[in-house]
Amino acid sequence: MKRMRSRHHRSGGGGGASRGNNGQIPLNRNHVFESNGPDIRVRGTAQQLSEKYLQLGRDATGTGDRVQAEAYFQHAEHYFRILNAMNQAAQTAQQERAERQRAYEQGRQERRERREEPGSGDVEEHGAADREAQPPVQETPRPPRGRRPKNIEEPSAE
């Protein structure tokens, strides 16, 4: 039995922009579109297609074909809107990167300040008055390792 294809089926080989992100066109300036214009097929980036359809619209206006010119101008506007969406997404991404960088630098500065403030555990940073205020630590002499002290009696094996 032959498989039936739905009306909107597209093969992987081409036939328009791929729409992988929730039906959205990938926002990449270098993305190549295949456009089926009113009477021609044009291929290129959104910038190139917008310029091409604008030129075709001007040419059609010059020849007196207002209907064809309007169709070209509508296609040009479509790709112009895609270009604006790409620019806006790039600007938003740049602002987000700048905000993350500011937050990173601020956290880094706060960590640096915490390390430098007194009382962080560095003895060298305390003044002589702090050292004098603390009672001296009494050390008890320890016997050398590997030997037993002479004053300890060994238990007898009785």
From TrEMBL:
Lineage top rank: taxon: Bacteria
Pfam families, A to Z: DUF4167 (PF13763)
Region of interest: Disordered: 1-38, 89-158
Biased composition (Basic and acidic residues): 96-133
Comp. bias (Basic residues): 1-11
DUF4167 domain mapped to chain residues: 19-88
Alphabetized InterPro entries for the sequence: DUF4167
Protein name: DUF4167 domain-containing protein
UniProt source species: Saccharibacter floricola DSM 15669
